[in-house]
Amino acid sequence: MRKTMERHKAVPMLAPTLLALVPALVLVAATGCTGQAALSDAEKLARVEEMVEEVERRFPEVEAVTVEEVGRLLETGSVVLVDARAPREREVSWIPGSITADEFEENPDRYADRTVVAYCTIGHRSSEYAKRQNEQGRRVLNLRGSLLSWTHAGAPLVGPDGPTNRLHVYGETWNLAPARYETIW
């Protein structure tokens, strides 16, 4: 009985502390739960660029090409795009005409006369992939900013049913596609 009374005495002392925390909790609830989706497209693109710069610091030996450069290569037919993502991601959407890493590795000589460019969500996994391929004597470049840069540039994606605005972004951290895209992770 005495312990119960001591607990009840402590409750009034906790009330001011809890009331002081309410504004902070409201702020967290209002901003923390919305995450990346609350950002404008310009803010998302700025975050993408920050992440890309980090990828480039981690993989200085991997040559990267921009979406614009890949666009020019696509016009001439002199590029093959290799999707370095997991199958569950690729099932949602992919860059038109791209192949999987497995397809590339089955017969890399088939693409010897073309520029090979790997991509993923932001460029980290595709940089890892390019690095491994380069170590095996194959020249593979990384698409700078990968699918996030691709979508911010307004380039198309396709899915199982044709053109799509759905994109698997790997995880909430990378939920930085433009607002017109439905993101999944």
Q: How would you describe the overall organization of this protein?
A:
The protein is an alpha/beta fold and 185 residues long. It has two domains: 1-33, no CATH class; 39-184, Oxidized Rhodanese, domain 1 (3-Layer(aba) Sandwich), CATH 3.40.250. 48% of the residues lie in helices and 16% in strands. It contains seven helices and nine strands; from the N terminus they run ααβαβαβαβαβαββββ. The chain has helices at residues 2-32, 41-58, 67-76, 87-90, 101-106, 124-135, 146-152, and strands at 64-65, 79-83, 99-100, 115-119, 140-143, 157-159, 162-164, 166-168, 182-184. It has a five-stranded parallel beta sheet, sandwiched between helices. The protein has a two-stranded antiparallel ribbon with strand order 6-7. The chain is globular, with a radius of gyration of 23 Å. The protein starts with a helix and ends with a strand. Residues 13-34 have low confidence and may be disordered.
